[in-house]
Amino acid sequence: MNPVDVIRVVVEKLTNSSPTDAAMHDVLFVIRIPRIIAAILVGGALSLSGAVYQGVFKNLLVSPDLLGVSSGACVGAATSVEIPLGILTGLIGAPFYAWLLWKQRTGVG
Question: Which residues cross the membrane (predicted)?
Answer without folding.
Answer: 36-56, 83-102
